[in-house]
Predict the 3D structure of the following.
Amino acid sequence: MKDLAAGLARRRRAHLYRSRRVLSGMQGPELVVDGRPMLSFNSNDYLGLASHPEVITALQRGAERYGAGSGAAHLVSGHGAAHHALEEELADFTGRPRALLFSTGYMANLGLVSALLGRGDEVFEDRLNHASLIDAGILSRARLKRYAHADVDALLKLLRARHGGGALVVTDGVFSMDGDIAPLAGLAEAARRHDAWLMVDDAHGLGVLGEQGRGSLDHLGLGRDDVPVLMGTLGKAFGTFGAFVAGSEELIETLIQQARTYIYTTALPPAVAEATRAGLRIARGDEWRRQRLRELVGRFRAGAEQLGLPLMDSVTPIQPLLAGTAERALAWSRRLEERGILISAIRPPTVPEGGARLRVTFSALHTDEQADRLLEALAELKP
């Protein structure tokens, strides 16, 4: 039997040990963490909808109408009117014929890639893709080929060496740890030229970028012909929980028949679907939330530049501050915590060796004063 205690000790010595924190109250810029008030720049609740009164009311009314749970998988007796309505609204939002709900983004990616590919096929992935996408490629049993981050030429080289079979190019739309946007136009052209499909996981773009928050594809002027397969999550900008895939009638029907993580999993509680419908309506209509994020990011980046802070290049609410080593990232996080500011240290294997960082994230509910307070605290960190 593997020595688990020794493995944990090694993680501690390498500054890679992770610890959970206990939060009290609702999500928002100001939290109570382990009993202590903290200013948080640590959440993916980009539009500030997780605690929105209309979203909460929709959840409550959904529970009153449908109960606390769905009771079964979608294909048994768990697919309710709330799920169906949300799928139709997500299809309209993304400009695609159909959408299909999954219980989590991880499960959506595993089910999607495994349903589309198998032995003899090939999947091409950005090296900085989310872990769920990498795992999906491995579990699909297709040949997994990884290209250098955001490097269309590197992808083209791999595509030219294809051995036949089906081919799927997979990328994040907005990379969750770097905050940069994938070169989707170039990836779409490369995939089209080599008879491959392009799949985009836009978990961190939807709600934040594009008209009405339609995401990185809309931001870059791309449509469903350029990107046949779109995955999105509901637990970030939309403020609730779950995920979906949007695409053609044939794609969604194929997933219903073949995606094991859809077939063999209990459906989301209908009340969560009702809350998500409210979050989606607010996200589409409240353009001020996206404008506010742009203002905050601009203010923060200007202040960080004046301080000479090692920020990575990003126009999204994800603003990585590069520390280099895991030890330094942890030290920075602890220094900020002493100042009452919560920002987690991101360390390998979540990011590459030498790429440990603080992942600063903004919400539309942050104030200018809170952003300035963060800059004041960051000014005291040693580069």
User: Anything to note?
Assistant: The chain has two domains: 31-47+287-364+372-378, 53-285. Residues 346 and 357 are 5 Å apart (CA to CA). The domain at 31-47+287-364+372-378 is CATH 3.90.1150.10 (Aspartate Aminotransferase, domain 1).
